[in-house]
Amino acid sequence: MQTRPRPKKYIRYNRKARPVVEGKPNLELRPYQVLIRPLVTEKGTHESLHHNAYTFRVNPNATKLDIKNAVQELFNVRVLDVRTQIRHGKKRRYRTRMGEMSDWKRAVVKLHDEDKIEFF
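User: That's the sequence. What structure does it adopt?
Assistant: Structure tokens below.
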């Protein structure tokens, strides 16, 4: 007597490590192409008030030097430090299928003590 094959159990696969998105060589980005928008959150507001650091959503191909030059040119301030993160997209359900939001890049820019950026 032949038996049915056992069903495969649902296996949750871990997110595979993705390569870090880096800028392509000789890619020229204008300052308004580097900075997409400021991120106004509770944590970002706290950092801007107490540590003089501002958070932006930036182009994934932008390098730290591109971000520094763009902030200095657009806001006329002095940038001391730039920290970047690659934020992985969340999983979302679209009707019966699972989808995934795209990855994006976040930059935290620390300014000189005498400089400020007013968003509002």
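The chain is about 20% helix and 30% strand.
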